[in-house]
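Dear Dr. L.,

I hope this message finds you well. Following up on our conversation about the binding site, I have prepared a predicted three-dimensional model of the protein together with pyridoxal-5'-phosphate. For your records, I am including the exact sequence and ligand specification that went into the calculation, followed by the structure tokens. Please feel free to forward this to your student if that is useful.
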Amino acid sequence: MSIPTQQFVSDNYAGVCPEAWAAMERANHGSAPAYGDDEWTRRASDAFRDLFEAKCEVFFVFNGTAANALALSALSQSYHSVICSSSAHVETDECGAPEFFSNGAKLLVVQTPDGKLSPEGIRAIASSRSDIHFPKPRVVTITQPSETGQVYKVDEVQAISAICRELGLRLHMDGARFAHACAHLGVSPADATWRAGVDVLCFGGTKNGLAVGEAVIFFDPAMAEDFDYRCKQAGQLASKMRFLSAPWLGLFESGAWLRNAQHANACATRLASRIKAIPGVTLKFPVEANTVFLGASPPVLEALRNRGWRFYTFIGGGARFVFGWDADVRNVDRLADDIAACAAAA
Ligand SMILES: *Cc1c(COP(=O)(O)O)cnc(C)c1O
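The resulting structure of the complex is given below.
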């Protein structure tokens, strides 16, 4: 028994994919204007507009917490509220950044088992109060795919955006793994977002193979007013911006953005199909993107840990495994073998 050489604790354990790395290298010649006034940033922004078939406004920031918090603050005033799922990253994993950057907009949490919001859930909480004493609902944020790896189908996003329009709410999408959702759905980024009624998308680069960086995409340029100032004030305006933007070009021009996600999803599907028939082991959520939640007794999880596997158990008590662009299928199989061995011994 040897210690695993690759862990699947999170997709941010992965390094930089070769296409992004090569693009960084290409951008690293000579000097270039700072703060986004460079050729790379212009080309990368155009690449987003091509990919989304839209004249969207694009901003590059360092991480997903900033992308979400700044996007939500641009969509709301301090007296507003933002409707999200109880397991939403903005609620559970951003240390209050959305509330902080919006100067107090309140998150209104809908209890959901799979991290997905429904039109009914949104309507119920948005119409629960309409008096002056309650923070006025203004934004809905959905995570695509959700924190438990469930993907909203396009018609589900459409149904949510329809209720948003009816109730005067704006729709934000936390797409930390947006590429994985596109890979699962097999639809264009445009169909998955603005054509389905999404106003603002935070498109994750880090979990898709970049060293660092997320893009905030406004499909309605009016909503992006002064967003550059927000980024600067929050410490999110990169001075050597080309190194945040050029890697995106590498992902898009090579098609790696989708390939990486397809590979990661396929690894999750592979693990799920190899373990689903093992007695004493369950899948706590359907596997649709690049995450697998393994349900097993504490002794089985302990035995897995003893074999050197690391994993989180913070969502639903199961062991979470997440696959990055670099997941080696031999290691996926090895994890499956170890799960089987630990379950058999328990
Ligand atoms: C990883 C992740 C983010 C971004 O997290 P950072 O660590 O701030 O980059 C945002 N939303 C979801 C759902 C995530 O999984």
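In brief: The CA atoms of residues 281 and 296 lie 5 Å apart.

With kind regards,
A. P.
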